[in-house]
Design goal:
The chain is of the alpha/beta class. The chain has two domains: 32-157, no CATH class; 168-486, Alpha-Beta Barrel (TIM Barrel), CATH 3.20.20. The chain has helices at residues 32-42, 57-64, 76-92, 99-112, 117-126, 133-141, 146-157, 199-211, 229-245, 263-266, 293-300, 311-315, 317-323, 341-357, 383-396, 410-416, 455-462, 478-486; strands at 68-69, 72-73, 168-171, 216-220, 250-254, 282-285, 328-330, 361-365, 401-405, 422-424. Strand 9, helix 16 and strand 10 (422-424) form a beta-alpha-beta unit. Helix 8 runs parallel beside helix 9. It is globular, with a radius of gyration of 23 Å. Bound molecules: iron/sulfur cluster (SF4). Iron/sulfur cluster (SF4) is lined by residues 176, 178, 180, 183, 185-186, 222-223, 256, 308.
Length: 487
């Protein structure tokens, strides 16, 4: 099932074939703007750059050479100061994607993947130090069995808290003004039956989830044109306030990109701390789906009236959310949309680093493409490559919480549960929950859900002996929740 050594794909640098210097330093012709990207790509959070003693001899010798830049010698200290200054400026600025810089990174990573540095990188990651974006790409390309990466993630994960957490998705509506080709909810999908729950139905679903022991919920809608967004903001605000009123300890909102002036309506009435940040745990979920502009345009379209077609507006949604007081972000990619997984892995790692450096808590989602109503079967990438991807994210970004969902079957969930933090379980249909399970009809769902068992059964599979899953209190302790909800 896992990809084995010798099957390593050639690096795809579809974003750019431009070439840069192979050494440790920026090429002499790089301007400050490019240096900013270099600084971001090289930033390691302080601890994940390999010490010289762990480099192979050829690399160690190269790292000792004094670089030249624009005819003047640049000392290591000065370069680090410039990088840190630029990095600081980047962290304070909104996130941007520099596809050329990522292309250069992937070319370097592909070269490094053929050196003896690979084993040292793996040992560094296994020790729990994390990896920078380029090193993650090195291990993606490396001639290493996926089992080796998975074992390393397992070993590393064992040193951290292993308590799983959960949430259930709750679709408030399956309407949408966007036209993403891969999605069942797209505006022009005649095969989807449209449903929108009223607030009473939403509250009833929240009470039902709470009675069943689920205390974290993701509220989902489509994405709407400007004229409909005031309605959408008020609607979602009412739902999230209902969830808070019922004692949900974590609410995630997945409602598309939000303009600066719309946050006031979305977050009205949510208590804040003295510094303006939100008090309850409220997560903004905005999956870029792909960080490739070309792939994004192919699937999400280019019509300026299409609310989802603006790549940059979506890319900077977390930065606006941060300014509006939100401190938890959930970026993600739709795995399989772009065949160049190394590019997506690198970009997602950069985005995650940007958000962590801002001081946000980060959840990471990597759902695979699935079947939609009226569409062909969509499978994303192979199980082996998917496990390789999740293993690398787990190894390289230990501060981020990786989410897997029941779009994966039980076997994949069991494999991945020990190296992720969150398993989300539930249905992708509108207000689907019943006292004992959920409805899963494809004709009202965004995507097919593979594991359709009740979430209690799914989560029971992952309950550690005498342990618990955060945000889930099954029947034994549910009466306390019943009383709270009833009151
Ligand atoms: S992916 Fe989101 S924005 Fe695009 S059609 Fe589906 S629900 Fe709408």
């Amino acid at each position: 099932m896992l990809r084995s050594a010798g099957e390593t794909p050639a690096p795809q640098t579809q974003q750019s074939q431009a070439h840069c210097g192979a050494g440790l330093w920026p090429a002499p012709s790089l301007q400050v703007a490019n240096l900013q990207s270099e600084a971001m790509l090289r930033y390691t959070g302080g601890s994940s750059r390999l010490p010289r003693s762990q480099l192979c001899p050829r690399k160690a010798a190269a790292s000792r050479r004094t670089p030249k830049w624009g005819g003047a010698e640049l000392t290591h200290v000065a370069a680090v100061h410039i990088s840190e200054w630029v990095l600081h400026a980047e962290v304070m600025a909104d996130f941007r994607i520099d596809a050329d810089a990522i292309g250069h990174t992937l070319q370097r990573a592909a070269r490094r993947a053929r050196t003896c540095e690979v084993e040292a990188l793996l040992a560094h990651a296994r020790a729990g130090n994390g990896l920078d974006a380029e090193s993650l790409a090195v291990l993606w390309f490396a001639d290493l069995d996926s089992e080796a990466l998975y074992s390393a993630a397992l070993q590393t994960r064992g040193r951290r808290s292993t308590r799983l957490e959960t949430f259930s998705p709750l679709y408030l509506t399956n309407t949408c003004d966007a036209e993403c080709r891969m999605c069942g909810m797209r505006r022009d999908n005649q095969a989807l039956h449209r449903e929108t729950a009223d607030l009473a139905q939403v509250e009833a679903q929240l009470r039902l989830l709470a009675r069943r022991g689920m205390h974290a919920v993701a509220l989902l809608t489509g994405e709407y044109r400007a004229a409909s967004r005031p309605w959408a903001m008020g609607y979602v605000n009412a739902a999230l306030r209902a969830a808070h009123g019922l004692g949900f300890s974590h609410v995630l909102i997945n409602v598309g990109s939000i303009d600066k002036d719309e946050f006031a309506a979305l977050l009205a009435g949510v208590p804040r701390r003295d510094d303006g940040s939100l008090q309850p745990k409220l997560t903004m979920c905005t999956f870029q789906e792909t960080y490739s502009r070309a792939t994004y345009a192919k699937f999400m379209g280019t019509d300026p009236d299409n609310p989802r077609a603006d790549f940059d507006r979506r890319l900077t949604n977390f930065d606006r959310a941060y300014r509006a007081g939100m401190r938890v972000a959930n970026p993600g990619i739709l795995v399989g949309l772009n065949a160049d997984v190394a590019y997506e892995l690198t970009a997602l790692a950069l985005h995650t680093r940007h958000l962590l450096d801002k001081g946000m808590q980060v959840y990471l989602s990597v759902p695979r493409l699935r079947q939609i109503a009226g569409g062909r079967s969509q499978g994303g990438i192979s199980d082996g490559d998917f496990i390789r991807l999740v293993s690398l994210l787990s190894l390289g970004l230990p501060a981020a919480k990786i989410v897997i969902t029941t779009r994966e079957n039980a076997a994949i969930q069991h494999t991945l549960a020990p190296i992720v933090t969150v398993i989300s379980a539930g249905s992708a249909a509108v207000t689907p929950y019943t006292e004992t399970g959920a409805r899963f009809p494809l004709e009202v769902s965004q995507f097919e859900v593979i594991d359709q068992r009740p979430f209690e059964e799914i989560l029971r599979d992952h309950l550690p002996p005498a342990g618990s899953i955060e945000n889930f209190q099954p029947a034994l302790t549910a009466p306390r929740v019943h009383e709270r909800v009833a009151g």
